[in-house]
Every structure is written in structure tokens, then in C-alpha cells.
Specification:
Blueprint (H helix, E strand, L loop, with lengths): L1 H33 L3 H6 L11 H4 L4 H6 L4 H20 L4 H22 L17 H26 L4 H20 L2 H21 L1 H25 L8 H7 L1
Helix pairs in contact: 5-9
Protein name: Reticulon-like protein
Membrane topology: Multi-pass membrane protein
Organism: Hibiscus sabdariffa
Length: 250
């Protein structure tokens, strides 16, 4: 009888220990579940312009993105070199476009003409001049894409001019004002060349140092929003709204 009670006492003691161990494991698992996962922490990291995809995907992920991000260094360097030669010819040497095209055509036609006639005397085959034709499908696709972008630009301008979004209106006005100042410093070709060089340098540098740039950009965006909130409270909120804004509120 005493042995039976002793066994019961041992079994109850073992069960209590097991319950304590189980309770400790469940609490630790709950605490682990409460901890944010690494993926969720990474998802909350601020990215410039609110992007959620890599820089390569932002630029389309195709050949243009490979060129801008220097995936193919030969093609990227070649594109930048051609743009530099064109800028030097027209801006520094002050070559005119029509003059350059005519000189290139004169040189090409003269070489082909002389080669075609001289091949009979030097016993060599005449140059093969390919038949060049502009394909219909790429031109149609480009025209449709250009038409779509122009119509979308018109829609955006109409939306801004209608007075529905004051923030967007001020942003566009400020952007155009800055662009007009830059345009007074240089001509269109130089501005186009500067933009082309920036597109071939800034994205690849940002992709390389994005972990350092994004925290700084987050602080800058926070400060801009803070200053805009003050400006909105002191100035923009006191501007009377138009009829479109009143209808929208109703």
C-alpha cells in the first residue's frame, strides 16, 4: 500500500515537471513568434521613391536597364561614347546637323562608287549594298506608344489645371521653373547630354550604394514632409478652394 502511494506521488511529481517544461517551451515559442521576422524587417526598410522592386526592375528589366546599369559594359560605354562625340561635334566644334549628314553621305557614296568601279580592275568582288527598308510593325508600335504617352501627358496636365490637387500643381510649377532656369544656362543639346550622362551614372551608383543612400533619403523626405505640413497649415489651408474642390467635398 505504501509502495502504491509512493508511485502515485512520483508520477504526479513527474507530471508537474513535464507541465512546467511544456509551459516554458510554449512561452518561448510565443515570444519567438512575437519577434518580427527578418523578412518583415526588410520589408519595412525605406526605399527611395517608395519602390518595392530592385533598381533593374524599375527601369523595365530589359536591355535599356542593362545599358543604364552597366550590365553590358561595352554597350554602355559605346552609347556614352557616341553621345559624347555628338555633343563635341555640335557644341564644341559647332558642326551643324545638316552639314554633318551631307558630309557623311558624300563620303559614303564616294567610297562605294569608287569601290564598285575599281573592283573591275583589281579583280575583286563589288561591295554588297544591302536593300534598306523601314519595317512597318516597329514604326507602328513606336507611334502607338508615343501617342499613348502624349495622351497621358495631356490628361495629367488637364488634371493639374482643373485645380483638384494643389500639391501636384505646386510641384509641377516648381519643376518647370527649375527647368526654365537650367534652360537659360545651356541649350537643348547640352541639357540632353547632361541628362544622358546622369542616366548612365546616377542609377548605377545608387544601386551600388543604396543601403547608404536610402537612410539619408528617408531623413530628407521626413524633413520635407514636416516643412510642407507647416507650409500647408500657414498658407495653403487659407487659400479658398474652387468649385471643383467644393463639389468633391460634398
Amino acid at each position: 500500500m505504501a509502495e502504491h502511494e509512493e508511485k502515485k506521488h512520483e508520477e504526479s511529481f513527474i507530471e508537474k515537471i513535464a507541465e512546467k517544461i511544456h509551459g516554458h517551451d510554449s512561452s518561448s515559442s510565443d515570444s519567438d513568434d512575437d519577434k518580427p521576422s527578418e523578412s518583415s524587417i526588410q520589408a519595412k526598410i525605406f526605399r527611395l521613391f517608395g519602390r518595392e522592386k530592385p533598381v533593374h526592375h524599375v527601369f523595365g528589366g530589359g536591355k535599356p536597364a542593362d545599358i543604364l546599369l552597366w550590365r553590358n559594359k561595352k554597350v554602355s560605354a559605346g552609347a556614352l561614347g557616341v553621345a559624347t562625340v555628338i555633343w563635341v561635334l555640335f557644341e564644341l566644334i559647332e558642326y551643324h546637323l545638316l552639314t554633318l549628314v551631307c558630309h557623311l553621305l558624300i563620303l559614303a557614296l564616294a567610297l562605294l562608287f569608287l569601290w564598285s568601279n575599281a573592283s573591275q580592275f583589281i579583280n575583286k568582288s563589288a561591295p554588297h549594298i544591302p536593300e534598306v527598308q523601314i519595317p512597318k510593325e516597329p514604326v507602328s508600335e513606336f507611334a502607338l506608344a508615343l501617342r499613348f504617352e502624349i495622351n497621358r501627358s495631356f490628361a495629367v496636365l488637364r488634371d493639374i489645371a482643373s485645380g483638384r490637387d494643389l500639391k501636384k500643381f505646386l510641384s509641377v510649377i516648381a519643376g518647370l521653373w527649375v527647368l526654365s532656369i537650367v534652360g537659360s544656362w545651356c541649350n537643348f543639346l547640352t541639357l540632353f547630354y547632361i541628362v544622358f550622362v546622369l542616366l548612365h551614372t546616377v542609377p548605377v551608383l545608387y544601386e551600388k550604394y543604396e543601403d547608404k543612400v536610402d537612410p539619408f533619403a528617408e531623413k530628407a523626405m521626413h524633413e520635407i514632409k514636416k516643412q510642407y505640413a507647416v507650409f500647408d497649415a500657414k498658407v495653403l489651408s487659407k487659400i479658398p478652394r474652387g468649385p471643383l474642390k467644393e463639389k468633391k467635398k460634398d
